[in-house]
Amino acid sequence: MSDDSRPSPSATPSAARTAAVIPAAGRGVRLGPGAPKALRALGGTPMLIHAVRAMAASRAVSLVVVVAPPEGAAEVKSLLDAHALPERTDFLVVPGGQTRKESVKLGLDALPAGHDIVLVHDAARPLVPVDTVDAVIEAVREGAPAVVPALPLADTVKQVEPAGTPGEPEPVVATPDRARLRAVQTPQGFDRATLVRAHETVTGDVTDDAGMVEQLGLTVVAVPGHEEAFKVTRPLDLVLAEAVLARRRLNDGF
C-alpha cells in the first residue's frame, strides 16, 4: 500500500472483526505513589477492568488485548479472571515494553489473523461510553484508515515560549483559532494494516498512534468524543470519575 493510498470501504467490510489493544504498562506517577495507574480502584474496581469492559461493551469488539507491565502480566491475568467480563469477547494479556509505543506494538504483534480493525485505548480512560466506541469503529468500516474521537476546546489556547525553569513566566507567542482545535481522546481506531505499517515505519517519540499515521501522509478523521471519556491522570480526575460512576450506577444500574 503506497503512502497516498487509502483503504476503500470494501477493504474493511461491515463484517470485519475488531480487536482492542489497551496499553496498561505505565506507572502513572502523577496520581502519586502506590499501584500503577491502571490498577487504581474506581468505585471499588480497578480502572483497567472498567476500561476493558468499556471496549467489550461494543458488540463489534471480539478480542481485547491488555498489555501489562512486564513484571506484572500474571497479576493482570489473574485480575481479569477475577472479574465478570462479557462471554462473547475473548481476552489476552501480554507483557509490555518500556514505552507506550513499544507496548502498543507488542499488543499488535499478539493479534491473531482475522481482526482487520484495531482500537487502541488508554487504560486511564475507564468511562468512555459504548456509543463513542461504536462511532470510531463505524468510521473505520466506512474506509477511514485512522479515526480519533475528539471534543472542541472550552478554553482559549495560547502558544508560549517554554520557560527554562519550571514556574517562570512564559512569553505568549500566538493564540491559535480555537474553532480549528480539538482535544483528542481514545479509543483511536485503525485499519490494521495501516497501524502495523505506521509502527514499522515511524520512529521517534509520539504522543498517540494517530499521529504516526499522519506521518505516513494518510488522512486521520475525527468523530465526536464524549465528556465522560476523560483521562484519569491526577487525583482530582479520580474524584470526578468516582462521581460519574456513582451517577451511572444510580441512574442506569451500571
UniProtKB/TrEMBL annotation:
It catalyses: 2-C-methyl-D-erythritol 4-phosphate + CTP + H(+) = 4-CDP-2-C-methyl-D-erythritol + diphosphate. It holds the Pfam family IspD. Pathway: Isoprenoid biosynthesis; isopentenyl diphosphate biosynthesis via DXP pathway; isopentenyl diphosphate from 1-deoxy-D-xylulose 5-phosphate: step 2/6. InterPro entries: IspD, IspD/TarI, IspD/TarI_cytidylyltransf_bact, ISPD_synthase_CS, Nucleotide-diphossugar_trans. The keyword Nucleotidyltransferase applies. GO terms for molecular function: 2-C-methyl-D-erythritol 4-phosphate cytidylyltransferase activity. The keyword Repressor does not apply. Keywords: Isoprene biosynthesis, Nucleotidyltransferase, Transferase. Its EC number is 2.7.7.60. Catalyzes the formation of 4-diphosphocytidyl-2-C-methyl-D-erythritol from CTP and 2-C-methyl-D-erythritol 4-phosphate (MEP). HAMAP family: IspD (MF_00108). Belongs to the IspD/TarI cytidylyltransferase family. IspD subfamily. This is 2-C-methyl-D-erythritol 4-phosphate cytidylyltransferase. It comes from Streptomyces swartbergensis. The gene is ispD.
